[in-house]
Specification:
50% of the residues lie in helices and 15% in strands. It is an alpha+beta fold. Strands 2, 3, 4, 7 and 12 form a five-stranded antiparallel sheet that branches. The radius of gyration is 24 Å and the shape is elongated.
Amino acid sequence: MSGKYQHDIPQSLQRGFAVERKPGKFQVTVYDRDRGIFSTAPEGVAGESYFYSHAPASPGDVTLDDRITAFESGIAAFINQLRTCPLDSPIDAALAGSAVAHYSIRAAHGRRLFTEAVRDVVGAVGDRAQSPEEFWRTLKLDQTVPSKTMRDIMREAWREDHRKLRQRGLTQDQFERVFYAQVRQMNPNDLFSLATPAARFFTESLLKRAPEIARKGHTQALDRTLAPPKLVERLSRLIWSMQEEADGTFILPDHIVSSRLVEGNLSPLFQVGEETITQVLLPVSHRRLLVGSLGESMRIGPALNAESAACCWQFFIARERRHDLETFRESIRAKPRAFLDGLLHEAERDPSKRN
């Protein structure tokens, strides 16, 4: 049955990076961007209350968290096998593809990234709309079809007053068509004076709702599929192998799975298109790394931990405290921030990609 505290990085995966202090009692070291470095049991890290689903409404109801737990029972056995099998053992490509695809979309990293993206875009729109002319251009009111920004505003207006509007016999589609037609007929100066307080309210409302918007999108995506079929199919075509480090240096990033792109850069797997994947990396323990490659697997270099840390949003997990890992903590969120800045710059340069 689904519990209250739900992990976005499963405890079964975390235990591969843990020290067993007592029989059955494990402890990992967390390198957190804001909270520093600390040791804790896997039960207390990488999770939050009702992250995937709330308590079931009725006894016997199956929640999203229940489905994830059931789906991962087979994956956990597969991961445990990879931690101890001979390095040259054949690896089931279909099972590897399914496990990697699932891990890549379940973590909180993507939800946090989307939340920040919403905040960036809303803030940028507010910064631009500082005059009647800019406000008119930002909303693209010269178009006969509403821009995405304008559609968001109309949906927010409908959400606030939909009960009263329905009592008057209006559907949401009718309301939005009338709303847009009336706005386009207004003088830009009058619209700016009238809309500035409303726009500020809309902006503040959207900023407050950004985490819930991200949560809803994430849980709906997982509800549709726990392992996207196209991604599984692509990953199943890779050549899978195990790599091992005798000194046990691998970290577990908060995005879980990384992908090496054609140009050589490392990114969280969920952030890239299937066609750009050349190599996929899933740490299964502090000693072992599952590697999927288009061709013959290349030896993973010593810079992997530094690259993985820079791709993290909030933290990474390791077996112990080490000086080199302490320095990597300083780069957490560097690549996600650069990714968001790039998207925002592209939207500023080409508004069609924003609207």
